[in-house]
Fold:
Amino acid sequence: MILFRNMQLFNFHTHKSSSFNNEISIWNISVEDVEKYEGLCSVGVHPWDIREPEVIAQIESVRNRSLLGNVVAIGECGLDKLCNVDFALQVAVFEQMIVISETSQKPLILHCVKAFDELISLKNRYAPKQNWIIHGFRGNVIQAKQLLQTGFYFSFGAKYNSEAIKVLPLWTFFIETDDALECIADVYSKIATDRNISIEELSEAMKMNANNILKLKI
Ligand SMILES: [Zn+2]
Structure:
């Protein structure tokens, strides 16, 4: 791990505590735990976690916590056609997450499975001022270009389409571990190799993106 000495790596989205010393991460935390945690985190209603009849309370919990200083993004939230929750209900909950993101002025971390057309039309309809970042993006070059044109940003985890990551400008994406076993340094190494740049350059670009896209100061 000599390679990474003194280098800070920004991890856009994780569900676990860090396994790499010099990591700055956004922890996707449950609303119940957010008040006990002082680090950077995100809160949202994930489509998998939508439960009737508690859904109204779930949304209100996110709304209440959204103004906390260490909550730096809303999510993950979004649309998933492979999950059992009724799709119309998913859309209704996601629309509430959009409203919370806009009123709290915090970006959205998106989970999207087989629902990119719906996601694009919602973005066009709401014309949000906050940035929308699709986490765990595994789409191909055509999807990546289409989403880029619609103003989306991306985040890549351990599994991704290496052709897609090569065509996106460096200022349009982040790097994450999500719930994978790999540590953030492994994901940075892989992406630096695919992009044919140094890890230092990649690390600097990701910190700059965190400051520009997420309004962090790191
Ligand atoms: Zn996640």
Q: What stands out?
A: The helical segments are 55-65, 87-104, 116-126, 141-149, 162-167, 184-195, 199-213.
